[in-house]
Structure formats: C-alpha cells, structure tokens
Design a protein that fits this description.
Keywords: ATP-binding, Cytoplasm, Glycolysis, Kinase, Magnesium, Metal-binding, Nucleotide-binding, Transferase. The chain is α/β, with parallel strands linked by helices. It folds into 2 domains: 182 residues, Rossmann fold, CATH 3.40.50.450; 138 residues, Phosphofructokinase domain (Rossmann fold). It has 11 helices and 15 strands. It has a 7-stranded mixed beta sheet, sandwiched between helices. It has a 4-stranded parallel beta sheet with strand order 7-9-6-13, sandwiched between helices. The mean pLDDT is 97. Bound molecules: 6-O-phosphono-beta-D-fructofuranose.
C-alpha cells in the first residue's frame, strides 16, 4: 500500500521527527512511503520521492522539513482538486498524511469531504489549532522566546530601560503568554485583549515610581492596539500578503515602544524575535509529541480511520475529526492572564 506524506504552511521544529516516526511505523505496517515536495504543491506538480528508513535517518533533531513546504492551497488553484485527484490515481496513492496548520488542515478537511483518504497531523508554533491541547513546535518557540526575555532583562536592568519584545503567534497569544509568564515579563499584550497603550504607560510609570527602574513588555504580533480607551483597535501588518493571501503580521512592537517612550519619557527599545522562534532543533518535548503524533497517524491509516487527525488530549494521543482543527481559533483562556497579572506590579 502506498502512502504519501506532506508538510504544508509555515515550518516548525518537530516536522522531521513526525516524518521519521511515520516512515518507521509504516515499515512495520508494510506501507511504501512517498514524500510530497512543498506541501500540496507536490501533488499538483506530481513532485515526490521515496521515503525509506535510510532517507529519514538522522533527522529527528533537525529543524525545518526534509520535504520542503509551501502555503499553496489546491482549492485556490485552477483545476486544483482534479489535479490532486489525478496525481493520487496515477501514482496509486492509497492515503495522504497531511502535516500542517490552519491552511493545510482546512484543505485536508475539504479533500476528505471530496472522498479522498486523508489523515492529518496538527503542527504550528502558534498553538492555535482547535481539537488538540498542544501542537509540537510550540514548546520550542516558547523556550526560545523565554531565553530572549531572560537576556533582555539583564540589559534592560543595567540601562534602566523599557524593552519591548515582539513575539509571533498570529491571532492568538499563546507564545506571548507562556514566554511572558516563564520570563517574568512586567506586561504581556495579546490578541485576546486589545491593548490600551495609555493604561500600559500608566502601569510602567507606577512601577517606576515604586522603585522598579526597568520593565519588560512582551507583545504578540497579532495584538490589536488602542491609542486610548476611547479609540478603536488597530491590527499592525507589514502591508504585504503571504503565499496564502493572508496579511503578514509584524511591527506592533515598534509602535508599542514608541508610544511608551512618548508617554512616559522612559528610554525604550524593541526586539523583534521573528523567525528565530521557528528555526533550529526541536526541544525534547516537541520531539516526543511529534513522534507520538507520527506513529498514531500511521496507525490511523492502517485502521482506515480517515478524515481525522492525531491530537493530544491530556497526555493521550487520540483521533479527532479534521474539521475540529479549524472550527475556531484556540485562544488563550482568561485564567492564564489572571495568573500573569499577579506579577505585573
Ligand atoms: O504560523 C506560524 C507563523 O510563524 C506565525 O506565527 C507568523 O505570523 C507567520 O507564521 C509568519 O509567516 P512567514 O514565514 O510567511 O513570514
């Protein structure tokens, strides 16, 4: 039985660990594995290669994806679905394992509704996918962002400055909340709660008046800012669109830093972490989660459990309907901010 695997969307640490796990388990099931290059594009262009134990050995700890990735969505390409169906038939592919985030898994959901045999694996540093408690890649990104916040602390303290650290996460604040709590940030700004910059400035002034001469502000890239309590919210984008046609986020850190300096007179700097959060080796936690997802996804193919994805519930790996992943964004619950706020004084 031939099974194809693809990685789509933004890369994240742990993708290679999933691929390796799928291929290892596949050899126990007697599947022949095929790697599709650059996400769904691999099916559209009929571009693939054979995956074996040998070609997937030594990749567990490596960042990125040996398959390559893209945000190409077959449903937005002329005759995309027909081309995918033809490639599947021509190559005798029994099932496709799609490893991806929001975009890839929504396409996977539609493909499965069209009758194709699809199994999903959720991935993203943003941890915004519904239907799974965590995605792999998130723990690595949080570790990197936390280390950055730790490092910013010492230099902010020496210079008695405010430092604003902008982290990724798209429209949710998981990375900001975790790295902010773990790194002891003095303010955490997230998309779930519009940020009133006047309130932030007043808070920093109160800290300063209490003898705390430096502050760390963690801001998620998707945070909507308000110049005052009365004014409307503004999402900061680069003005450009990504491959999937979505606005590219970024730049909110600069605005927050400028406004803090203007309103408080405190010297303020900004540090934008960007793709550093996505590159490099996965943490041990992400390698284990990715490996468990990979083995489970392969077993799902063996059981004929299609239209579902591997998911984490508590500490168990379960099968969840693909449509659940993108039904709604998994936002950070309020309790997390309440915990963080205890330390904002
Ligand atoms: O979804 C992962 C992510 O890193 C987001 O946090 C970020 O907004 C986006 O991808 C950046 O994408 P790109 O690689 O296209 O710049």
């Amino acid at each position: 039985m031939k099974v194809a695997v693809l990685t789509g969307g933004g890369d994240c640490p742990g993708l290679n660990a999933v691929i390796r796990a799928i291929v290892r388990r596949a050899s126990e099931h007697g599947f022949e594995m095929m790697g599709l290059r650059d996400g769904w594009k691999g099916l559209l262009d009929d571009n693939h290669f054979r995956l074996t134990r040998e070609t997937t050995s030594g990749i567990l700890h490596r960042g990125g994806t040996i398959l390559g990735t893209s945000r190409v969505n077959p449903f937005k390409v002329e005759n995309g679905l027909e081309r995918v169906k033809r490639a599947i038939e021509r190559n005798g592919i029994h099932a496709v394992i799609a490893i991806g985030g929001e975009g890839t898994l929504s396409a996977a959901t539609r493909m499965s509704q069209e009758g194709l045999r699809i199994v999903g694996v959720p991935k993203t540093i943003d941890n915004d996918l519904n239907g799974t408690d965590f995605t792999f890649g998130f723990d690595t990104a949080v570790g990197i962002a936390t280390e950055a916040v730790d490092r910013l602390h010492s230099t902010a303290e020496s210079h008695k400055r405010v430092i604003v650290c902008e982290v990724m996460g798209r429209h949710v604040g998981w990375i900001a909340t975790y790295a902010g709590i773990a790194g002891g940030a003095d303010v955490i700004l997230v998309p779930e709660i519009p940020a009133d910059l006047e309130a932030v400035a007043q808070h920093l002034q109160r800290r300063n008046a209490g003898g705390r001469t430096f502050s760390i502000v963690v801001v998620a890239e998707g945070t909507r800012i308000k110049m005052s309590a009365e004014q409307g919210e503004q999402l900061v984008t680069t003005g450009a669109l990504d491959e999937a046609g979505r606005p590219r986020l970024g730049g909110v850190g600069n605005i927050v830093a400028q406004e803090i300096e203007r309103r408080t007179g405190f010297e303020t700097r900004v540090s934008v972490l960007g793709h550093i959060q996505r590159g490099g080796a996965p943490t041990a936690h992400d390698r284990v989660l990715a490996t468990r997802f990979g083995v489970h996804a392969c077993d799902m193919v063996a059981r004929g459990e299609f239209g579902k994805m591997a998911a984490l519930r508590g500490n168990e790996i379960v099968s969840e309907h693909l449509s659940e992943a993108t039904r709604e964004l998994k936002r950070v619950p309020k309790e997390f901010f309440e915990v963080a706020q205890v330390f904002f004084g």
